[in-house]
Amino acid sequence: MHQHSSRDGSAHPARSGFRRLARYGALGISATVALALTACGPAIGSGEAPAESTKLQAPTDPSGEITIWDRSGDLFEVFDGVIEKFNEKYPDIVVNHEAVDIGAKLQNTLITATDVPDGVFLDDQLVPGYADSLWDLSDVLDPYLADIAQQKVDVNSINGGIFGVPWDLDPGLLFYNEAALTSAGIDATAIESYDDLLQAARDYKAFRPDAGPIHLEQSAFLGQLQLEMYASQLGTSITDENGELRIDSPEYEQILTFLDTVQKEGLGTRAEYLGPTDIATLDSGQQVFVPWAQWFSFGPQQLLPETLGDWRAMPLPAWEDGGARSGAMGGSSFIIPKDAAEPGLAWLFYEFLVFDPEGYAAVYGPNSIYPNGLNTSIPSYAPAADADKPLFGEVEAFGDQDFWKTAVEAGEQIPGGVPTPTWWGGAVDYLGNNIQKMLDGTMTPQEVISVSTEDIQTNLVDRQ
Amino acid sequence: MTTVDTRRSRPAIVSQAFMVLLTLLFLSPVVWAVVSSFKPAADIIRDPLGFDATSFTLDNFTAMFDSVPLASGFLNTAIVLVLKGTLILFFAPLAGYAFAKYDFPLKNVLFGTVLVTLMLPIIVLIIPLLLEMKEFGWINTYQALVLPDSFGLAFAIFWMRQVIASVPDELLDAARVDGCGEFGIFWRIVLPVIRPGLAGLAVLTVMNIYNDFIWPVVVTTSDSMQTLQVVLSTLAQNISGNTIGADYATITGQLLAASSIALIPLLVIFIVLQKHFINGILAGSVKG
Amino acid sequence: MTAPSALGFRAVRRAPQQGPRWSLLRRRSAPYLFIAPFILIFALFSIYPLTFALRLSFTDWRGTGAATWVGLDNYAYLLGNPAFWASLANSGILWLLIIPAQVVIGLVAAVLLNNAKLRMRGFYRTAFIVPFVTPLVAIAQIWVVVFDQNYGPVNDILGAVGLPDIGWLTTSEWSKPTIALLFLWKTTGFAIIILLSGLQSIDTSVYEAAALDGASRARQLWSITVPLIRRTLMFLVVLQTLAVFQMFAEPYVVTQGGPYNSTTTAGLYLYNHITRADLGTGAANSFLLVIAVMVLSLVFVRLLRPKD
After folding, report:
1. Are C210 and C224 in contact (CB under 8 A)?
2. H-state helical runs in A97-137
């Protein structure tokens, strides 16, 4: 019978002791070679101090070609539609508009400084992390600064420079199901403070025992973002302008206690933003209050057919008497990398998009993608965000409410802010998760504050 | 011969049922994805498991064809598949043969490097590799997509080595006695004998190249060079549970449409490659 | 058959002075030539970036600005960080949930597919591979929906038989099995291909002889198939161990590593460092991961290597 003696003589089939030694040998050789090669290879940031100024100036000759990066999706289509109008003003500037996975590519592109785009759309919270690679836009933004929402300017201001063109303001609003609340005899518009909101929720729950009236976010990331919305109302955030943690403060204690109360009294529906549970309970009248950024409006307009027309928006309740009735949640700006080929032209493009009446009307007004206009945010530039001159139309899903006016007036109330720390995303592992634990009932607000502060300090702040 | 010759003529009902069940489990999510791409985008989010035949729509497809460079994605993936596939399917068996059937100094050390390559998490090599590509001037080129994949080659070599190890030495001896050159032994004896293993390698290589997105996303900076996976991942960036302000319904619809279309050429390739899987008629060269 | 002849393969190796010089040179240089392409690619595209990564691991580089030397600080931080060990543990638990199941299912499927009398083999083979090439992001949504705690069909079925709802994606206890299921679904086709190839290289005369001797199918499977396929199994287990430990896309897309980092695998933990621009720590992390994985592979190879 033919046996498969399929093994070679000397090479024992698997990693015998000899082989293991040989493998370590291979590693040893590689390590030696490695150390030798360490001498060559690309230099990792020699950290030369920039000789010339990093402040961008407006170009003298508006002609050339630029590459603009945007996230793919509805916004890409909207901005794409504006290019035509831009070319009416600047016919000699060719815009190559590319949909790019910015999160995956921007960092690497800036590190290798190859094929660097001229302008990129970036979430506000990410701008400080890239500040070293970006043009300081203080000079070119100067004529407009006074008219831009303070929070947006603050969030882009790092070390005395401004590194992003502030674009959209995302004011926090209280979305509520008016039809359901009215049928329970509750007038939501009378709500002025978070205590009022709690009471309204209790009343609604008495009327409908299976309800969890207030939305409690289950995604750790979005939960932390929402926390910052509440904090923004109170003029605070995770860190101050010097990067010092300030979670351990009466403001955060008040916010967390509110959330804890909602959870403890069973007044909340715990669900991931617009996930299956969220949509089902929103549409069934079990969830009737959603304190969220303006971009929640996409939900009632597209995803909630049963309650279409029942929803309304109003400013958030205030944390204290006479306090701000809104805070910022999210928001994006446009950045211009230092290694861009035509930074000045990119500035002209963004100047048109954000500050030129034709530009911002084209962005927010009716277009082929949004026949009624873009209503998931408002401009941060005051002349564009005029309460009496709406850029987008009345929203049918909100019962033809003048949503523009509501959002703009709320936006005007947002206090100033500070730049987001570069490690903000990493903090979700600590603060974001701890908030969730509190909503599970396994942590108290005080514990969330103290444990998060300590963990963030040790793992993130100290290691910068 | 490889088919099991048994007294029983057909696999039992249990076996058939198992296969059917497994197939159902494997295919149902994909069927869902394809079916959903024909639903209005908002419905996909709102009512993912329902299907209202009256709201059948091609909107996702038309929107996708308008805004997504699917054609160039296909073309680039095809080019990379051919170039890289040929590279791997030629050089890996060759190297595997060397490791399996030859004895030479440093053999174990060199094979050790193959193994080490497999164990390196690719993500850490991205930035250094990218800087290297920049130095070579290879960013956004086909070379950059095809060559810097030690992992793919290492995996193939690892597998081929063990497949070839089970080829009986007698065959090779006989060929040598007949005066075959080293390469001739490989080409004329070894390759035909390992056909099922080679077919398997071909299938997996095609799949791995097709699936590859971590590196292509990073090294292609222009639309014209993007492979299919890069195109799809660009679409998907708004859908990771961390959406801020995005209208992710329309994107989800387009993504499902694009994914559905992306499956078709692959299925065609597999069906063609199936023929090389043994259907019970392996050339009887293994027998004495 | 007969024993190798005196002029056989091994004899040639051990008696190199036989034969004309030029063919000797060819024989000796052949292996080096054959593996040269790989070595070249390895040197250019693995060693070179590796040395860079090694250097990085001793710095605190954030992608921009200067890279300050910090010595072993990154390594010390990781080794002393419970989150790092937790990520390894998570990967370990996922390994236990995935590999044994995948081996069993894969083997059964491969054996059945190897039977020429099975109908629609080609169809099944194609069907099993489809998950591997379906984009993960397209599928992630269905996982989220199907396993939703309140409205998902899985819990509906549980409810129908009187069992309580399970928080598949919202509790630390159940998130790992759910992700494991996703990984199983996606990669078992890959396992089946490998096992099938291994099965198909077994000489059927072995089976014929056993059948003639009166061995039942099951007995054949156990005492013939499994030993001969042991090498393939070992290969598969080592490969999939690597894959499980480096896995990051599945937990990233479906659970973002949560809840409470219960699905933050070793691969995702590493990925987070890189995407948060903590490149020095990321580099150190990868080397530690390589060591961990190497140790594991050695263990398996020891356990599973063919004895002959």
Report:
1. yes
2. 102-112, 127-130
| Cβ <8 Å between C27 and B182 | yes
Q: Is C48 within a domain? A: no
Continuous segment of H or E residues that includes residue A20: helix A17-37
Q: Tokens 């549409």, residue?
A: A283
Put simply, whether C203 touches A (Cβ < 8 Å) is: yes
Q: Using the beta-carbon criterion (under 8 Å), do A2 and C1 form an inter-chain contact? A: yes
Q: Which two tokens stand for residue C9?
A: 């393969």
User: What is the CATH number that goes with domain B60-281?
Assistant: 1.10.3720.10
Q: Using one digit for the tens of pLDDT, what is the confidence trace for B56-86?
A: 999 899 988 888 888 899 999 999 999 999 9
Contacting C residues, span 79-108, partner chain A, CB-CB under 8 Å:
81, 83
- What CATH code is carried by the domain that includes residue C120? 1.10.3720.10
- Dump pLDDT digits (tens) for C234-278: 889 988 998 999 999 899 989 988 899 999 999 999 999 988 888
DSSP per-residue letters across A385-410: S-TTS-SS--BGGGTTB-HHHHHHHH
Q: How many Cβ pairs within 8 Å bridge chains A and C?
A: 118
**Residues 266-285 in A contacting C (C-alpha not used; CB under 8 Å):** 271, 275-277, 280
Ramachandran sector of residue A63 (left: φ over 0; alpha: ψ -120 to 50; beta: rest) = beta
pTM score: 0.87
Cβ pair C150:A280 closer than 8 A: yes
Going from N- to C-terminal start, the domains of chain B cover 60-281
The CATH code of the domain at A64-170+330-385 is 3.40.190.10
Nearest Cβ partner for A42 among B99, B110, B131: B131
Count of CB pairs separated by less than 8 Å, B with C: 323
pLDDT in tens, C106-132: 999 998 888 767 778 888 888 998 998
The residue range of the domain holding C240 is 75-304
Q: Is residue C125 part of a domain?
A: yes
Query: How far B96 CA sits from the closest chain A CA (Å)?
Result: 13
CATH class in words for A172-329+401-461: alpha beta
- In chain B, which residues have their Cβ closer than 8 Å to the Cβ of C282? 123-124
Domain A64-170+330-385 and domain A172-329+401-461, same fold? Reply is: yes
Handedness of CA B145, C140, C288, C304 (dihedral sign): negative
Q: Which of C50, C209, C231 sits opposite A13 (nearest CB)?
A: C231
Region B87-116: what's the mean pLDDT?
A: 88
Our count of domains for chain C comes to 1
- Tell if the CB–CB gap between B121 and C274 is shorter than 8 Å: no
Residue C55 lies in a domain: no
